[in-house]
Amino acid sequence: MRESREFYISDDGIRLHLKLDFPQENCDENSDESCGKSGGESFGEGCLALPSETSRTEKAAKAEEIKKTEGAEKAEKLPLMILVHGFTGDMEETHIRAVQRTANEEGFAVLRAEMYGHGQSGGSFGDHTLMKWISNILTVIDYARSLDFVSDLYLCGHSQGGLLTMLAGAMERDRLKAILPLSPASMIPEIARQGEILGVPFDLDHIPAELDAGKSLTLRENYIRVAQLIDVDLAITRYNGPVLIVHGTGDESVPYHYSEKAAAKYANARLVPIPGDTHCYDLHLDQVTEAVRAFLREMK
Ligand code: FER
After folding, report:
1. How close is the Cα of 282 to the center of ligand 1, in Å?
2. Does the beta carbon of 226 lie inside 6 Å of ligand 1?
3. For ligand 1, atom 14: residue with the closest CA
4. Of 4, 140, 245, 266, whose CB has the highest number of CB atoms within 10 Å?
5. Tens digit of pLDDT for each residue in 165-209?
6. What's the CA gap between 163 and 146, in Å, rounded?
7. Is the model more confident about 45 or about 181?
């Protein structure tokens, strides 16, 4: 049985907070059912059929077989999904946990990762930019590739983490079996170029030094300067693998129509609308997890 782990890796001196969760085996320590453990056979005292020489040999052979099976189980590879939160988010948010559990239930290991300036990772929120997040996710992908139990890699992210998923999909197109941008904030670069961020207009020739990002957080100007350079359309055209986009049609932070546009441009995308739902799926989180479950099942 593989154990969940919480740990840190370094991205050029910035610590990244990660949690790795595994599928639960369908048995527990106290249950003999379907575990491949002792099958109720006993040669101990009080046993009616005392062990003959032959049965001892059989027992040894059986023990050897069990050992081999356990070895094979340990060596068995698993698909792994990297999962990233959004802007001001973290890995413990309800929707992130729900997607993680769903993927675990479908037999995927899940590596939740917190990006620069978020959760327990290093860096301050005010200094975060999409380029720092890109550097972070490339490091997380390299780490995931180094794990010997990993078969196929998947990348999933919510909102700004969904945009990151689309960008990383293009960069790691040969390494990601599928990507799952959830309510991706794919419009950030476009609106930043048009002079708007977080619903607040700004003068393109005088980018404000600081912006109020809510939750008592302040965003600094480099966030905007970096966002303006990001080419989402290029990223979309460079990823030909399967894409699952899930998006609430009542999302007020990232309007649904941006996902319609993105899905239409991808070579191989499925868009699942969540009727009337919000940015973080306050109404129908179950529909989100069912869409993710169905997609992952088909991929396996
Ligand atoms: C914005 C709209 C949405 C924006 C960020 C988001 C920085 C991201 C939301 C999220 O990740 O949940 O204008 O600007």
Report:
1. 17
2. no
3. 198
4. 245
5. 999 999 999 999 999 999 999 999 999 999 999 999 999 999 999
6. 24
7. 181
Strand-by-strand arrangement of the 176-182 sheet: 5-11, 14-21, 109-113, 78-84, 150-158, 176-182, 243-248, 269-274
Give the residue among 22, 17, 29, 27 at the shortest CA–CA distance from 3. Answer: 22
Cβ density class 270-291: b for 16+ within 10 Å, e for less: bbbbbeebbbbbeebbebbbeb
Asked if 243 and 178 touch (Cβ cutoff 8 Å), the reply is yes
- Ligand 1 within 6 A of 137 CB? no
DSSP state of 206: B
Ligand 1 atom nearest 87 alpha carbon: 11
- Asked whether the beta carbons of 121 and 92 are under 8 A apart, the reply is no
> What is the CA(160)–ligand 1 centre distance, in A?
6
Q: Do β-strands 196-197 and 269-274 pair in parallel, antiparallel, or remain unpaired?
A: unpaired
Say which CATH class 5-299 falls into.
Answer: alpha beta
Q: Domain extents for the chain? A: 5-299
C-alpha dihedral (220, 224, 230, 233), degrees to nearest 10: 130
How do beta strands 5-11 and 14-21 pair? antiparallel
- With a pLDDT cut of 70, the percent of the chain lying above it is 83
| Residue found under tokens 């992952």 | 296
Q: Which DSSP string corresponds to 27-67?
A: S-TT--TTSSS--S---STT-SS---HHHHHHHHHHHHHHH
CB-CB neighbours of 136 under 10 Å: 28
